[in-house]
Design brief:
Number of helices: 4
Number of strands: 3
Strand order of the largest sheet: 2-1-3
Helix content: 55-70%
Oligomer: single chain
Radius of gyration: 15 Å
Strand content: 15-25%
Length: about 90
């Protein structure tokens, strides 16, 4: 599937340019890897919860996605860099 160059350029401008987009991508990727690499420890405290990780730190958690998203919005956390995942032992 080919990407329309106009749409790609518009998306990159919205993100702040290619370099900023790449920085944000690396940050969210790092936070997802943190969840994967620390799953066992995270399950001990957050089993059955949504967690939000920014800078390799759990910055919010809760039973409902919306409550976690609301905490992030109140803290003005950058959604494009914050990994949000449901973590469960099941």
């Amino acid at each position: 599937m080919a990407i329309n160059n106009n749409l790609l350029e518009k998306a990159l401008r919205h993100a702040g340019g290619r370099e900023e987009f790449e920085r944000q991508y690396k940050e969210i990727k790092k936070n997802h890897f943190y969840i994967d690499d620390n799953r066992v420890e995270l399950l001990q405290s957050f089993d059955g919860n949504w967690i939000a990780v920014f800078n390799s730190v759990v910055v919010a958690n809760g039973k409902e996605y919306d409550s976690v998203a609301k905490v992030l919005a109140n803290k003005k956390m950058p959604a494009e860099e914050t990994a949000i995942r449901f973590i469960s032992s099941k």
